[in-house]
TrEMBL record:
Domain PH: 1-84
InterPro entries, per database record: PH-like_dom_sf, PH_domain
Protein name in the entry: PH domain-containing protein
SUPFAM superfamilies: PH domain-like
Length: 127
């Protein structure tokens, strides 16, 4: 197994990885956090740290290691909450709470309809 040290930054549902911890370094790549799960790998420290994996529905699996078990827990929690599906559910919940306070109910979730059909709303309406 080849192991290369990289540094990561999480922005929304994007996990950027860098060659160094320098805050001005350019990202070497990006992992889109969609259709995945975080999996803890054992309780003990391995040769490179405390390990967890990102496992994607398409079968890809990415290994990560942290310096401490606490860091691993924090990364797994942050990454677990960063996925598109989680963000979408949070948005839906917040919209429902706003609507309840306003006393309104939406008949159509416009964003969900657009995502499901791949079309803009104007394309779906005929006059």
């Amino acid at each position: 197994m080849v192991s290369l040290e990289k540094w990561c930054r999480l922005r929304g549902n994007l996990l950027f990885y860098f060659k160094s911890a320098d805050q001005f370094s350019e990202p070497q790549g990006c992992i889109v956090l969609e259709k995945y799960r975080c999996v803890r790998h054992g309780d003990l420290r391995e040769y490179d740290g405390f390990v967890f994996y990102l496992e994607f529905e398409d079968g890809l699996r990415q290994r990560f290691a942290t310096n401490t078990d606490q860091e691993r827990l924090e990364w797994m929690q942050a990454i677990g909450l960063a996925g598109y599906d989680v963000k979408r559910a949070q948005l839906k919940y917040l919209r429902e709470q706003i609507d309840k306070k306003r006393g309104m109910i939406h008949d159509v979730d416009v964003d969900m309809l657009r995502l499901q059909t791949g079309k803009e709303i104007g394309d779906l309406i005929s006059f």
